[in-house]
Specification:
The chain has 223 residues and is of the alpha+beta class. It contains 3 helices and 10 strands; from the N terminus they run ββββββαβββααβ. α2 packs antiparallel against α3. The longest helix has 27 residues.
Length: 223
């Protein structure tokens, strides 16, 4: 499959709507960047604790996209802006633009123009969540890489399933052991070293399962 890298950096916003009716000077904005609504492509910035309604982040999101992704208006870069609250996070607004529009603009620039060699900088209005108007704008720098052939990593699915089964069995035995101890109320009689061994085994099982999952994970390719 022919693909290319797409990278978004240096995200910022200015003149955003303040979602707070009280403590209006305590706005801490963060952003979620994704390709459309695909959760596998979502990247989140940290909260900006100084910028208030003019936040900025030292941020980078890198994607591997299909060669033809830049020819469609349907695949969009989506940037959503949030303000953390005590009970829930308030969505301030969002900005979206198709990869085709970004690629066409990027291709029209002389090499080296923008925020760094081979990059482009753009601004887009922020549509206020639940309303029909925009306020403020989001700014970001981006670039597209050259096309290359993507080869999925080789996975030994037999070994993957065998290892996964082994650690699931160990996890089941661990749960059974803890259940028997709880029913017999023997926790007070169990040496602290034994409890520590059980805890370490549980941690080891979870670590191994994570490694197994990671070994079966491939890059997100959008086309």
């Amino acid at each position: 499959m022919e693909v290319r890298k797409f990278e978004v950096t240096r995200v910022s916003a200015k003149n955003l709507e303040n979602p707070r009716s009280v403590f209006r000077d305590r706005v801490r904005v963060y952003a979620k960047v994704s390709l459309g609504d695909n959760p596998r492509t979502e990247r989140r910035t940290r909260k900006d604790k100084r910028g208030q309604t003019n936040p900025a982040w030292n941020f980078k999101a890198t994607y591997t996209i299909g060669k033809n992704a830049v020819e469609s208006q349907d695949i969009k870069l989506l940037i959503r802006l949030y303000c953390p609250r005590t009970c829930r996070n308030s969505e301030i607004g969002e900005a979206s633009v198709s990869l085709k529009e970004l690629f066409d603009h990027f291709s029209s620039l002389p090499q080296g123009e923008g925020e760094g060699e081979g990059s482009a900088k753009v601004n887009y209005p922020v549509k206020i969540c639940g309303k029909e108007y925009s306020q403020g704008e989001v700014c970001f720098t981006y670039n597209f890489g050259d096309v290359f052939v993507f080869v999925p990593p080789s996975i030994d699915w037999g070994k993957l399933c065998l290892d996964g089964t082994k650690f699931l069995i160990q996890g089941g035995v661990l749960c059974l052991r803890l259940t028997l101890l709880a029913k017999e109320k023997k926790f007070d009689d169990v040496p602290i070293d034994a409890i520590a061994d059980v805890a370490l085994l549980a941690f080891d099982i979870l670590t191994q399962i994570k490694e197994i999952c990671d070994s079966g994970r491939v890059l997100v390719v959008v086309d």
